[in-house]
Design a protein that fits this description.
There is one protein chain. This protein is of the alpha/beta class. It is built from twelve helices and 13 strands. It has two domains: 119 residues, Alpha-Beta Complex (Aspartate Aminotransferase, domain 1); 248 residues, 3-Layer(aba) Sandwich (Aspartate Aminotransferase, domain 2), CATH 3.40.640.10. The strands form three sheets. A seven-stranded mixed beta sheet has the order 2-8-7-6-5-3-4, with helices on both faces. The chain has a four-stranded antiparallel beta sheet with strand order 9-10-13-12, with helices on one face. Helix 1 runs antiparallel to helix 8, helix 2 runs parallel beside helix 8 and helix 9 packs parallel to helix 12.
């Protein structure tokens, strides 16, 4: 199978990831729930993973790294911590439902959407400045669109928010592992990311980098302050209720080690080269509209396209029958399609990883040519 759906999950992982998961299942227990060697080994593992994430993402202290089930879990914690009834929240026009739905669940919140065209960061920043001048309580922005790979100018957005004292939340679901992220330099309130995408960890893992303490989403045991009825007021305990996914975190630690060894910039360049190769080949096919920019500063290794006169799900089903894994439709991001003008059709999305090759792109293009004959 040719796997071009890494924006959903990087299915191909370093071998060390599965080995670490197996080792943790066989030899580790819960942290903070006993004094056994198995429990202490798990505690050491979690600290090491927090430290690795802190080093990779510019977090001042490993305690500010909170483990989550996925980016959605982290975003819910961050949004429920920052956004209150009556607030005005500014979000980009490329946000995932993991942002828009939690916001919709909070009564009395005014959500303002920054609808701007694809691959035009200057326009985005100009409109961002205009909106901020009208008064905003919280700004939420994804780093990279999961549909189009559009890299938003989040460092500049973070700076604008910091200058005005506005809390900033970054969704790094599609950038963690390829683009530089530095919590302290961005002065972000929170940065949420999954473990199972660009960090090459298992599903069911995620990280929330905390510039502030935040409010619990879940309540329960933490292994600390057992006689206190409220959740502890310190990180990470305040935001981590219940038993940790120790095996998943073991795999995540090895995934981050792979990213660090290979180099985020090198992974990004590799994915972008495959994206450019695929875009060039797609443009040579009849009726294909490709959403691609030649500028590596504005697009990652995610590429969308559609074929005039053909439903995107039809194209996706054809590719699936020929053992090519992609994603078609609206990708849980209707705002992105509204911003880009694809809300009527959706798109077919290719998303690459460090494990994909030029030969796979060539084979994909050969298979897609057969679609016109089917």
């Amino acid at each position: 199978m040719i796997y071009f759906d890494s924006a959903a999950t990087t299915m191909q992982k370093p071998r060390e990831v599965s080995r670490a998961v197996s080792e943790a299942i066989d030899h580790m227990a819960s942290i903070g729930r006993g004094d056994s060697k198995a429990s202490q080994s798990a505690a050491d593992l979690l600290f090491n993973c927090r430290q690795a994430a802190a080093d990779l993402f510019g977090v001042p202290s490993p305690e500010q790294v909170v483990f989550t089930f996925n980016a959605t879990h982290g975003l819910n914690i961050a949004i429920k911590s920052l956004v209150k009834s009556g607030h005005s929240v500014l979000i980009s026009g490329y946000e995932h439902n993991a942002v828009s739905r939690p916001l919709a669940s909070i009564p009395g919140v005014q959500v303002r959407i920054l609808n701007t065209p694809l691959f035009q960061p200057e326009v985005f920043l100009e409109q961002m400045r205009n909106e901020l001048e009208q008064g905003v309580d919280v700004v939420i922005c994804n780093h990279v669109s999961n549909v189009f790979g559009y890299i938003l100018p989040v460092e500049e957005v973070a700076s604008l928010c910091y200058d005005r004292g506005i809390p900033f939340l970054l969704d790094a679901s599609q950038s963690a592992g390829t683009l530089p992220i530095h919590l302290e330099r961005m002065h972000a309130a929170f940065v949420a990311m999954p473990g199972h995408k660009g960090l090459y960890g298992p599903q069911g893992t995620g990280l929330l980098l905390c510039g502030e303490v935040g409010e619990p989403l879940l309540y329960g045991g933490t292994g600390s302050l057992s006689f206190q009825r409220d959740m502890p007021d310190f990180l990470p305990d305040r935001l981590e209720a219940g038993t940790h996914n120790v095996a998943g975190i073991a795999g995540l630690l090895q995934g981050m080690a792979f990213v660090r060894k290979k180099g985020q910039a090198n992974i990004l360049r590799h994915e972008q080269s495959l994206k450019q190769m695929a875009a060039k080949g797609l443009r040579e096919l009849p009726g294909v509209e490709v959403f691609s920019s030649p500028d590596p500063k504005v697009q990652s290794g995610v590429l969308s396209f559609r074929i005039r006169g053909h439903d995107c799900e039809e194209v996706g089903a054809y590719l699936s029958r020929h053992q090519v894994a992609i994603r078609s439709g609206f990708h849980c991001a209707p705002l992105a399609h509204q911003s880009a003008g694809t809300a009527e059709t959706g798109t077919v999305r290719l998303s690459f990883s460090a494990f994909n090759t030029q030969q796979q792109v060539t084979r994909f293009l050969q298979i897609l040519r057969g679609f016109y004959l089917s």
